[in-house]
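Design request, tokens follow.
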């Protein structure tokens, strides 16, 4: 017997009182989640926070209507039954994970919550015989379906053109600080710093397999180092750069990819074929770095390209000279 699975109740086995109790606890949870979203957004996105405050108030109204119906039909003692007690019932993302969600992702999560709730109320209404209960559950299903429109109404109330532009600018800035900056630093470090050891090994040994192993070790080692360094040196609280875990992942992964790009061609046995392809990959990597700098960091493309190409050329030259010597 597997704990936590066989102990759950099937939805079709719930009594009407238990269905109402489940609906009450679900509305309580959703209200808390919306308020958590609001608190998460309040400092940077006050207008969106006001929208989620309004949605939490809507959920409170649903909960009160359900409690009133339960009291009328079954009394004031509400059975303790929650989502996790019902087999196959939809789950909510743990509240603490919202710290790692961006504005658009939080909005998507809220939309999915409303769709889940609508399906639940439709299923629950079909499983009840009492006319008043069926009517209320059907009304709540319609209310959840209409929440998207309600969200738009709240958005119109709280998000005027200026507020929306301000929030979109803040969201873009946060994206750049959390993902683009550390990812770009990692890509630059991985692409440029591994040029010397990889091409030094290539020209010193003319052995493609050895060159690949050196490149693999250098790329993965640099990725791990950059990832841990980025995550450890700034928790993002004061700088506002966002989750250190996100930044560490972005930096570490892009560092490793930057080095692996020109290491992988050395899986080809022919030395000059592998080296020629590696040259092309390096060119693509350096162009990508310049493009990212231009698009997200607003660095003029020609200046970004000159800086990256000059740095890459110097490191490559050092590696080639050391390997040839």
């Amino acid at each position: 017997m597997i704990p936590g699975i066989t102990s759950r109740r099937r939805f079709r086995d719930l009594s009407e009182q238990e269905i109402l109790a489940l609906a009450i606890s679900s509305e309580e949870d959703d209200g808390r989640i919306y308020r958590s979203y609001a608190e998460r957004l309040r400092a940077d996105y006050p207008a969106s926070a006001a929208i989620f405050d309004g949605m939490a108030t809507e959920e409170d109204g649903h909960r009160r209507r359900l409690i009133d119906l339960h009291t009328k039909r079954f009394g004031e003692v509400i059975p303790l039954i929650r989502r996790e007690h019902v087999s196959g019932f939809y789950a909510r993302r743990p509240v603490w994970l919202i710290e790692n969600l961006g504005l658009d992702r939080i909005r998507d999560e809220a939309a999915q919550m409303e769709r889940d709730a609508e399906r639940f109320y439709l299923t629950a209404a079909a499983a009840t015989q009492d006319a008043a209960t069926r009517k209320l559950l059907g009304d709540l299903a319609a209310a959840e379906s209409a929440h998207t429109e309600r969200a738009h109404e709240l958005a119109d109330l709280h998000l005027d053109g200026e507020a929306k532009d301000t929030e979109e600018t803040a969201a873009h800035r946060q994206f750049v600080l959390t993902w683009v900056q550390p990812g770009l630093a990692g890509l630059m470090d991985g692409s440029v710093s591994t040029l010397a050891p990889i091409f030094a090994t290539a020209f010193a040994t003319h052995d493609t397999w050895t060159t690949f192993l050196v490149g693999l070790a250098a790329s993965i080692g640099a990725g791990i180092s950059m990832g841990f360094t980025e995550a450890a040196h700034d928790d993002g609280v004061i700088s506002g750069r966002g989750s250190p875990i996100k930044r560490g992942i972005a930096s570490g992964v892009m560092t490793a990819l930057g080095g692996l790009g020109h290491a992988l061609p050395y899986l080809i046995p022919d030395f000059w074929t592998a080296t020629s392809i590696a040259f092309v990959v390096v060119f693509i990597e350096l162009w990508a770095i310049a493009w990212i700098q231009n698009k997200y960091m607003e660095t003029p493309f020609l200046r970004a390209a000159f800086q990256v190409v000059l740095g890459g050329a110097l490191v490559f030259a050092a590696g080639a000279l050391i390997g040839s010597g």
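Comment from the thread starter after seeing the answer: thanks! Confidence is low (pLDDT under 50) at residues 1-5.
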